[in-house]
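Repro:
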Amino acid sequence: MTTTEPQPTDTREQPPDTGDRHKLTALGGLAALSLDAMASVAYGPESIVLVLAAAGAHGLGYTLPVTLAIAALLAVLVASYRQVIAAFPNGGGSYAVARTHLGRRTSLVAAASLILDYVLNVAVSVTAGVAALTSAFPSLYGDRLWLCLAVLVLVTAVNLRGIAESARIFMIPTIVFVGSILALIVAGLFRDHPASTVTAAGHSSVLAANATTVGALLLLKAFSAGCSALTGVEAIANAVPSFRAPRVKRAQRTEVALGALLGIMLIGLSVLIGRFHLQPVEGVTVLAQLADASLGHNWAFYVVQFATTTLLALAANTSFGGLPVLMALLARDNHLPHVFALKADRQVHRHGVLALAAVSAALLVFSGGDTDTIVPLFAIGVFVGFTICQVGMVIHWRRERTPGWMPKAALNAFGAVLTGVATVIVTATKFTEGAWIIVVALPLLVLLFERIHRAYSRIGETLGLGRVPEPPHRDRSLVIVPVSTLSRLTSEALTAAASLGDEVMAVTVTAPDPEDQAHAESLRRDWDLWNPGVPLVELSCPGRALGRPVTQLIRDLAVERPGTRITVMIPEVEPAHVWQRLLQNQRGAVLAHAVRRDTDAVICRLRFRLG
């Protein structure tokens, strides 16, 4: 239990901690937190081309202008999130900004939108990576769900070892992918015509037979489709605490590097699409056609395809880097269970990682590992977060009024307008394709946050958190020790009970059948001979239930002896090996559960270690 009220965010740069070696460098941040954005170059330009294909070859001529508009929005977002990183170094991104400047309810909308986007990113990334693999090896198509789950298990296992560990593992695939895309672009710029068209040969074009005109609606749809390339830009601001000191500067450098690389790759690929007059065809990605045209159908082509497949599958790592930190902040503010705020060794929010993996696995099973089922839901949540973040930062600069605040506020205001318009466009154009699910899920998630917060508030009120409690005092204590036979364990339990309480009572539960009665008679005889100075009370139970007679005794004693503190000392054997736990009868666990459920007695479980 922490506190019932959210605590203000400390916006000062924090000193390095002892777990710094388990945190990220700037290069490691690119590998751990930018895979989602990097991998979007595999489907961002293609999404634009597929929409513009409705206007035929003439429509494809607008690929570069639409991409430039998306790149301009990317530049605004990167500049804005650099400011968010500096203003909110404890992470949380749009949630932290909204919580401080726009109120609790708005901050929950931002948090819910980010959570939905992070979960969908895992599903989209994994299914897209597996789809690329099954395109190369069609025989695996029927097993794509199992392949998706296997990739998810792999990424989850790596992240349970720590975000720095995942960065080291994913650094090589990231470098190979970025290097191969940049090489593809450079090589293509030096060619006047395609080096090869083998990949697209024999595949039918998806250009519309009856081409429509290139109107504003078509361009807006192309823009909204291409905006999927901007998901993941916010992940670095959400996970600032994961960087090494000085974490603000490292996170800012990582954000700029991400924006520069992503912008260069998006614009470069769009230029090549126009240069080679590529048309979308069935069964072959636009990126594969570009690799074929720029590098030729050789080993370099397969390097690009392999790097793309790998990075798409691993792009889920962005969510594993950002979402557990966000969930930890929500838990600290009493909007999620407090267990999500706990850190394991290696600075891992383990429960957040496992929760993300479980929900993503359920989504993969629901979709059957099919990318097309999930993609329409993608990118809406993150644009809601973008807009809230920009508006909050405008208020931030107006309140702070630091030197040069007006240009910064103007930048964020401009960004808020752009992302707000993009949010409306993306939601409207994708609403009937499944986006309505996000529109419904968003308020439901906010409602869940509110319910959890109210529950913690009631608990805090009952516990008197924030108030000075009454001074402690000593009550008379009675310790009850359940026994079934005489042994060293019995002796240890009675010794411990005598050390804790003013009075000790041993109890045994007997059933009416002859076998139990004979055992009870033997125990009474042995107890009298042993004479430990502790009375043995027999409790009869016709149904062989262990917990019910003990809890009834506790309730009766509580009525007979008001003001007496009753403790139940449950002696248990602690095996020398884990597998030996299977040999235990679990009577102690059954009794502890019954006492905790039905009484207010204190439960003390005494461990007697073997070996």
